[in-house]
Predict the 3D structure of the following.
Amino acid sequence: MGKMERFSFVALVAGIIFFLFADFVSWALPMFVLKDIPKKSVIDLAKEAKAKNTTAWSDFQKIARAYPEQFKKYYGEVNEESFAKALSVGHRWYIAEGCWNCHSQMVRPVSNETLRFGIPGVSNTVSYPSEYNNELQAPVLWGTKRIGQDLIREAAVHNLGWQVAHLYNPRNTSPGSVMPGYPWYFEKDEKGNIVPNERGIGLLAYIMWLGSWEVKPPKDFRIEVANK
Amino acid sequence: MSNTQELKNLVNYGLVKAHVAMGLVFFIIVALMGFLYSLQLDGIYPFPGIEFLSPGRVRMIHTAGAAYGFLVNMFTGLLYWAVPRFTGYRVLSDALGWFMFWALQAAVLITVVAILFLGMADNVEWGETPWWIDPIIVFWLLLHLIQFGAPLYKASQRGPLYVSGWYISAMLVWTPLVVFMGNLIPRFWSVGSGAGAVQSTFIHDLVGLYVTPVAWGLMYYFVPVIMKKPMWSHGLSLLGFWGLAFFYPMNGVHHFLWSPIPMFAQYSAVFATVAVEFAVTSVLINFMMTLRGSAEQLKYNVPLRYMYTGAIFYWITCFQCAFHVTLTFQKIIHFTDWVTGHAHLIMFGTFGLWVLGMAEYIWPRLFGKETMYSKGLSEGAYWLLGIGVFAMFVDLTAGGLVQGFDWIGLNPWIDSVNFSKPFWIFRSVAGIMMITGLLMYAVNFYKTATAGKSLSAELKSQSV
């Protein structure tokens, strides 16, 4: 027993060997299992959104149309590069404001979550590994606490006007909400209207991008296309 | 007299005082931050529309500050007291100790500035420090390893180490690995669900492989010293340590059950977490049996009472954990306030009360006094802190169940927010109790440190 109670034995066996064994089981193996899923960079995500013409891409164009001055000033033209920039800016401030403390980004296969989040019949899927394999999920934003709703199926649930009003003051759209308002994501244009600034546009683009890869055209639309 | 002199040469009193005092300051700051955040949920946030006092940012100071400002400071201070005393050797270097002290305060202050004013945070819970601080923290922890590793290594050349030595030796090796792995791997070498698995291990390992072993190591030192008798069973000490060392590192993934992490990792985490409960129970039995025959000391010895109250809260938390870690419980309680209640009972109710008890034991001794300045403040703080944190735990646990069932029931989301509001208001009230207790505790500390010589002489004559 004497040997077990020495510094070197404890440091080696408990400190290193047990630790490495546990990490082998709890993250080296999962990482190995998931290693074949390609990792996407922000620009890949932007290109994908444009190529597939997802709701995120059309929402980004809507932002540019709704706030042309601010968009031109901060992001220039509507293209993949400016979309990638908006996603990075939005992601950065989403983390910096601690949005992830109250909004999770993971739909579990239990507790009716697939019915609650997203649009039933349009985007109601459980979270799966490959949708997290991108630069904007390193580290992942699953979160551990919900005070507000989950956001990983947020795309196409609310439109741009709702998102802007909600971000400025959540009580505008959701009476009873305890979320703080974020007026510093807005500025005044020449006419005195309150419009999103650089960070605001980024955050709106980012939030409306979340889950856009899951949004499918509504069923009747698909039937129409099939009939053609 | 010569014994006291010898111990004085062994322990650097200045480092103990500095770390414990800063730990207490940060404890009060992070408690205020948590209280401020809770006001947002009650709808009466005092600083709406001010960017750098946004509740989301304040909440990150609450968690990151609790980890690095409060716990690391407190534990390091207590280690500077305990390690030289039970090993019989000084720490590696006093100069290194002062360098580490200032480096730690600087790291915490930089983190606060970065999170509040620069919008730089990291989305790792408990690792909200901006990623460029993390290598510095790892380096700090390596210094911490050699600083306290030196006396432990020297002592184990002479013979077997005491139980505290095992826990602290293992912790010294684990912590730099944990911080490196948890903060840097998910950012640079892994992504997606694999990163999620690493992150979950970090969330748990900073608790399980830093806070828990250092706190148990200190408990194994302070409890027998205060009661002036050995631990009840050496066998149970061994069982508790090796059980913790083997099963605890595997617990992490239980933070992300039902997530896209492969199921085998989730099952292993559930199994290991239930196993940890047995190791914890063996430790608790050991401490309770040590108390047998000395229980009346709890009546007048406030530090000892802090420690045993914390130990009971610890057992409650771990017992609760063995159940709510199962996939069935997770369906209801995941993402709810239940988890918040659990986290507060363990971090404040157990580790908070433990370090406060230990600090209250050593504080008068550091200033050559026999007792704290005021028995009334001491007792008052104990009861406010203990009742406050337990009330908060019960409240949040109940609130969590309400939220969980409400979400399953597919009611409009705002219903769960409205149902939670009374629970959140009660939580703020419990928070006021806890903060009042902390302030009373701090006043007592300040008065003890600054009390004149006459006070200590008077106390000495009384206590004889």
Remarks:
- Chain B is about 80% helix and 0% strand.
